[in-house]
């Protein structure tokens, strides 16, 4: 059992648990001249806590664990087994691994990527970017204006990846931008003025309160319009099924 600190090299490459090779010069969160305080390789422990400076934490074995970021802009990457990743303060990047992971962003604007497995991603406060990738994922934006992507990753410094999955996306507060991707997804805008795009698959879109834009695209999609929701919704794809729950409000086809 160990938490081994690796000296931060000026140049070179790091091999991640999934076999991906990461160029040290391309580590995110360094565009403001800030450097990582340490690179921590976590093995055989259930709980690992970073320092108050920006850290790069790697789960380097198949042992289930929880990794906590604390302060600074951290990059935390899960391994083979299921993990709980907590960014806490700072603008963090959390990446799940091969297991069913739980990613919790924290207080600032974070980037969460589920990767493999059936993951739960929660942005919490501020304006977050969430990508489910493979598996049947649950994405919860929380407060702020968030970007949620169920079935694929929109470039989070590591390129674009196409993935499947039947996902649940919930925007929470703020004006959110949500896309289901592939699979049969459920998108809920909740409060705020949201943009919901089902993309591929047979999706269900519920704008919630606010002035929302609902787009079904391919598949047989269901648009939910309810009298309990305050606001005006625009249906950009009127060929899809509409469900009126005794609708009393405004909408535009």
TrEMBL record:
<protein>
    <submittedName>
        <fullName>Hemolysin-type calcium-binding repeat family protein</fullName>
    </submittedName>
</protein>
<dbReference type="InterPro" id="IPR018511">
    <property type="entry name" value="Hemolysin-typ_Ca-bd_CS"/>
</dbReference>
<feature type="compositionally biased region" description="Gly residues">
    <location>
        <begin position="170"/>
        <end position="183"/>
    </location>
</feature>
<keyword id="KW-0964">Secreted</keyword>
<feature type="region of interest" description="Disordered">
    <location>
        <begin position="165"/>
        <end position="212"/>
    </location>
</feature>
<dbReference type="GO" id="GO:0005509">
    <property type="term" value="F:calcium ion binding"/>
</dbReference>
<dbReference type="InterPro" id="IPR050557">
    <property type="entry name" value="RTX_toxin/Mannuronan_C5-epim"/>
</dbReference>
<dbReference type="InterPro" id="IPR001343">
    <property type="entry name" value="Hemolysn_Ca-bd"/>
</dbReference>
<dbReference type="GO" id="GO:0005576">
    <property type="term" value="C:extracellular region"/>
</dbReference>
<dbReference type="Pfam" id="PF00353">
    <property type="entry name" value="HemolysinCabind"/>
</dbReference>
<dbReference type="InterPro" id="IPR011049">
    <property type="entry name" value="Serralysin-like_metalloprot_C"/>
</dbReference>
């Amino acid at each position: 059992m160990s938490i081994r600190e690796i000296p931060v090299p000026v140049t070179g490459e790091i091999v991640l648990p999934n076999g991906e090779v990461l160029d040290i010069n391309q580590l995110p969160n360094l565009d403001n001249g800030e450097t990582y305080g340490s690179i921590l390789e976590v093995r055989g422990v259930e709980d690992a806590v970073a320092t108050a400076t920006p850290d790069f934490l790697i789960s380097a074995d198949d042992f289930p664990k929880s990794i906590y970021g604390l302060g600074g802009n951290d990059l935390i990457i899960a391994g083979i087994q299921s993990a709980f990743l907590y960014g806490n303060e700072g603008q963090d990047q959390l990446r799940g691994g091969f297991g069913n992971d739980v990613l919790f962003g924290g207080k600032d604007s974070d980037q969460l990527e589920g990767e493999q497995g059936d993951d739960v991603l929660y942005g919490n406060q501020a304006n977050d970017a969430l990508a489910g990738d493979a598996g049947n994922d649950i994405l919860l934006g929380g407060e702020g204006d968030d970007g949620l992507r169920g079935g694929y990753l929109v470039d989070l410094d590591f390129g674009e990846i196409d993935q499947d999955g039947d996902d649940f996306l919930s925007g929470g507060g703020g004006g959110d931008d949500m896309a289901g991707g592939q699979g049969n997804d459920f998108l809920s805008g909740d409060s705020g003025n949201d943009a919901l795009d089902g993309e591929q698959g047979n999706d269900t879109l519920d704008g919630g309160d606010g002035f929302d834009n609902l787009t079904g695209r391919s598949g047989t999609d269901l648009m939910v319009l309810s009298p309990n929701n305050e606001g005006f919704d625009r249906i950009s794809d009127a060929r899809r099924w509409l469900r009126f729950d005794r609708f009393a409000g405004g909408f535009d086809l």
